[in-house]
């Protein structure tokens, strides 16, 4: 499937300050009395998100790979993780949307925003000896933004 910006629409957006206390399953019995308003807000956010029925989700977070001076876009086919040391299991394992991620990367670069697809040793040395990136992404990187430029 070929994606373009005309095939993608925004159906939901939110900014959600949070912490471990915002997730009931991550709280000890003593902690359940704390941050009740935050937890209630996150639960309402979850209901609104579900009602919007998005086909795909993009999460912008400071809790991921950090690349100085650039947006990093994960292009993985699957994203998984869990919180350790919680009273009840808290985990997520969901499919990625690599085609959309590459499109987002292209849009960021075309908008002259510094953006990269982070790669580790396993990506840089694939079993068959070559990594085939989408056309145009091999050596493109937006120039650094200068102070005062918008």
Architecture overview:
The protein is built from three helices and four strands, in the order αβββαβα. It has 150 residues and is of the alpha+beta class. Among the domains are: 17-54, no CATH class; 57-122, no CATH class. It has a two-stranded parallel sheet with strand order 1-4. A two-stranded antiparallel ribbon has the order 2-3. A hairpin with a 6-residue loop joins β2 (78-83) and β3 (90-95). The longest helix is centred in the first third of the chain and has 17 residues, at 36-52. The radius of gyration is 19 Å and the shape is globular.
Secondary structure layout plus pairing:
Elements: H1 36-52, E1 71-72, E2 78-83, E3 90-95, H2 98-110, E4 115-116, H3 121-124
Parallel strand pairs: 1-4
Antiparallel strand pairs: 2-3
Brief write-up:
The chain has 150 residues and is of the alpha+beta class. It contains three helices and four strands.
Uncertain regions spanning at least 5 consecutive residues: 125-150
- Coarse morphology: globular
Order of the strands making up the biggest sheet:
1-4
The profile of the biggest β sheet is: 2 strands, parallel
Observed structural traits:
single chain; 150 residues; two-stranded parallel sheet; two-stranded antiparallel sheet; 11% strand; globular; disordered C terminus
